[in-house]
Amino acid sequence: MGVGRRMKKQGPPQPLSEEHFAKLKRKAGLPVDAPTEAPEKKRRRTAKKPEPKSNGSASKKSGSTSKASKPGKPAKELPTANGRSKSKAPKKPLIEESEEEEDEFDMEDLEADGSSDDEVQKIGDDFLGSDSSVFDSDDEGGQTKAMWSEDEDESDAEEKLTAANIVGLSRKLDQQLEEEAAANEEEMLQSALQTNISGDKPKVLADEDDELEDEKNEFLAPDLQLLRTRITENIRVLDDFSNLRQEGRSRAEYTAQLLKDVCAYYGYSEYLAEKLYNLFTPREAFAFFEANETARPVVIRTNTLRANRRELAQALINRGVTLEPVGKWSKVGLQVFESSVPLGATPEYLAGHYILQAASSFLPCMALDPQENERVLDMAAAPGGKTTYMAAMMKNTGIVVANDPNKARAKGLIGNIHRLGATNVIVSNYDAREFPKPMGGFDRVLLDAPCSGTGVIAKDPSVKTNKTELDFMQLPHIQKQLILAAIDSVAHNSKTGGYIVYSTCSVTIEENEAVVQYALKRRPNVKLVETNLAFGKEGFTSFRGKSFDPSMSLTRRYYPHSYNVDGFFVAKFQKIGPTPAKANAPREKSSGGDSTEVIDRTPIVDEDAEDEKAKNDDFGGWNEDEDEQYIEKGRRNAMRRRGLDPHSAGKKSKKSSK
Amino acid sequence: MRPLTEEETQTLFKKLAEYTGPSLKNLIAPIDNSPKADRIVFRLCQGRVYAVLLSIANIATSIARDKLLSLGTCIGKFTKTGKFRIHITALPIIAPYARHKIWIRPNGVMPFLYGGNVVKAHIGRFSEDCPEHQGIVVYSMDDVPLGFGVTARSTAESRRLDPTGVVCFRQADNGEYLRDEDNLFASG
């Protein structure tokens, strides 16, 4: 699905922990060739048991067989870093079924999330999941090797490094296996239950007598177990609607029921639930809601100005922190599984060797890719994770202007800048919309716009209820102003740059694609370019009847359920010409606005008749000559007040009039 | 933002020289030998003194006075009585030029970062011939600068001290980034 030209450059993020898991399994006396997913596979099959009874079994079967042949594959490929995967080029059927498989993988992800809150488990799964989502792209794998070859010299050391973690990890693994076994049992029970109740067609929607009962129970707390079963059933129906629906029920009814259940189960406001639901397929939406209930892994970023990753990892392991590199896509990120010391107060932290930073916020900086000796602007900088990352990428040369409109937040920003030793940073306190005015001509601009935060619900659950329709009108308005300011602050003739990166931690269309589309429309001198990020889904080129620019596929979206990072959006622009002078003028109402006619609204009347009428009306009409006298008098008075001689002025004016 | 006056410069340099000794002039020397070489200058902005590259300081002039919150590295601030108070943020400026150094053992790092003085039991290494009441930079054993202070005893004297005796009074330590963030940086 999300495979573009980027695949040729970098390839998807690697399911990095896999090797270790295999090793650990061998230790634990488990069959090694089965990857971590194997037990889940089993579970899935049992869960799917009722399905063959349904009518669409033929296509399903072929899907499941190909799936069954799959599990061995990723594990085998991994050690060779995708190099050999080319020879195992995809068979045709795989490509055809990629869509379906992806969905199923998502389901597995969410099952894993739901059944265990274990970090290790989640990471393995999610990265596997993301791997599978681009599975059909194996034919392009040859080039990916080239990109990663530079990492290989490091990988030995990393292995050594993580070997120190093995004790901790194996304990985790044991625990995780136990949990899985418990989950399996539970699922067996559930599937048995399902078959008893619903037979072929699950009953999701309430009948009339049920509704009566519902009304009675309105004031009782909802039965969560029941809700959850109903949600999963409902999704199953929506997946295969023509076969599984009850007679005479429409899809809208099912969707409405699902949304209602989601609101009750997860506590979203109805408005937001619907908005988020519309972004995905039902199954994916469920995975998204589910992923928002679990926290993302803690990630730290090595400050390359003060330390290197290997030494930092060693130092932290010695302090009792279990960690691992975050993925092949980043050379500075470390993912923390557990820690016996507070990560925000170790001597290394205080000495500025690392900063706690979500994996998703690496992405805009990597997309912007600031070079040494450039002038860069960060328009909304606090708390400074991205600013300091950019300063580190530039090796403290050039200039980074970090702006934040909030003084209280700016304090934390300055603290982080000093702690991490970024000396090339100027911190300013403007409203970012003012920006080309105090300073312009930047080589690159990063705009991480203020947003509704629908991508970080896991971090801040209050978003579920406190965002209303108004927010989704006001925030995009500000974002549009900001993005124009960002574009205007960039020098199009910069030798190395001329780039703008727009990012939000939100997943809605209004705050992302719509804003980008607006920028493209208002500033014809910018175009979207490749973000050069190793993974991510493409932006929407059309959504519910709205169609966006075809180049919107160059933007990248990140979801918590597919990559286990915060929900995020990244778009990279290049400025190719100066902003036209008229660009800031208010827009004309219609697109063909030139031909707006001037409408004369004075009523059409007979002029002479009007004059007669004027003389005879109650106000006595209008006398031009008398009026002239009054004007002259007023003018003279005014001159006298100013200390001028009215007579001379009168002469002069008469002369000039002559 | 403005350059320091003559008097202010003198106070500042006296303070810095306590830690760096005569190598202070390396700090303010041009960075390389090219004709238009950049150098570090000192600028006063909202009561704080910043050490910053000249090129950056020049660009920062286009930002209004009340909107400029920080540039380069904060060194410290002038007190109302005209003395100079040096902050922990100056550590990366003075650490490379420090004349006298003290290294503390791993078991002494946390007490120091929590604001304690350096006691003799925690000392791993100590510069020779360090006099009493001399500015000194504190390192951990793996050469990470942790803070700075003044010696309570000369090197020779401290050899005779009992293990709990204080060798160095703490003036600033990295822990202040957490404890004292509100006072370190200017913003109203």
Structural topology:
The complex is a heterodimer of chains A (658) and B (188).
Chain A: H1 6-9, H2 18-27, H3 38-48, H4 57-69, H5 72-77, H6 92-115, H7 119-133, H8 141-163, H9 166-198, H10 208-216, H11 224-239, H12 241-244, H13 251-266, H14 270-277, H15 282-291, E1 298-302, H16 309-318, E2 321-325, E3 333-339, H17 347-350, E4 354-356, H18 363-368, E5 375-378, H19 385-393, E6 399-403, H20 407-419, E7 425-428, E8 444-448, H21 463-466, H22 471-488, E9 499-504, H23 513-522, E10 526-529, E11 537-538, E12 542-543, E13 546-547, E14 556-558, H24 560-563, E15 568-575, H25 607-616, H26 624-641, H27 646-657
Parallel strand pairs in A: 5-6, 5-8, 6-7, 8-9
Antiparallel strand pairs in A: 1-3, 1-4, 2-3, 9-15, 10-15, 11-14, 12-13, 14-15
Helix pairs in contact in A: 2-9, 3-9, 6-7, 6-15, 11-13, 13-14, 22-23, 26-27
Chain B: E1 2-3, H1 6-20, H2 24-28, E2 40-45, E3 48-53, H3 54-60, E4 68-71, E5 73-78, E6 84-86, H4 91-94, E7 101-104, H5 106-113, E8 118-119, E9 123-126, E10 135-140, E11 145-151, H6 155-159, E12 166-173, H7 176-179, H8 181-184
Low-confidence stretches of chain B: none
Strand runs of chain A, count: 15
Termini of chain B, distance in Å?
Answer: 16 Å
What would you call the quaternary organization?
heterodimer
**How would the global form of chain A be characterised?**
extended
Number of helices of chain A: 27
Binned, the helix content of chain B reads 25-40%
- Quick check: average pLDDT of chain B? 92
The helix content of chain A is 40-55%
Please sum up the structure shown.
The complex is a heterodimer of chains A (658) and B (188). Chain A is of the alpha/beta class.
Structure, explained:
The complex is a heterodimer of chains A (658) and B (188). Chain A is an alpha/beta fold and 658 residues long. Helices cover 49% and strands 10% of the residues of chain A. In chain A, strands 5, 6, 7, 8, 9, 10, 11, 14 and 15 form a 9-stranded mixed beta sheet that branches. In chain A, α20 links the parallel β6 (399-403) and β7. Chain B is an alpha+beta fold and 188 residues long. Chain B has helices at 6-20, 24-28, 54-60, 91-94, 106-113, 155-159, 176-179, 181-184, and strands at residues 2-3, 40-45, 48-53, 68-71, 73-78, 84-86, 101-104, 118-119, 123-126, 135-140, 145-151, 166-173. The two termini of chain B are 16 Å apart. Chain A binds chain B through residues 344-345, 347-348, 350-351, 353, 375, 399, 407-408, 410-412, 414-415, 417-419, 421, 423-430, 438-439, and chain B through 52-53, 55-56, 59-60, 62-64, 66-74, 89, 92, 109-110, 113, 140, 144-146, 174-175, 177-178, 181-182, 184-185, 187-188. Chain B: This is 60S ribosome subunit biogenesis protein NIP7. Chain B: InterPro entries: NIP7_N, Nip7_N_euk, PUA, PUA-like_sf, PUA_sf, Ribosomal_synth_fac_NIP7, UPF0113_PUA. Chain B: Pfam families: pre-PUA_NIP7 (PF17833), UPF0113 (PF03657).
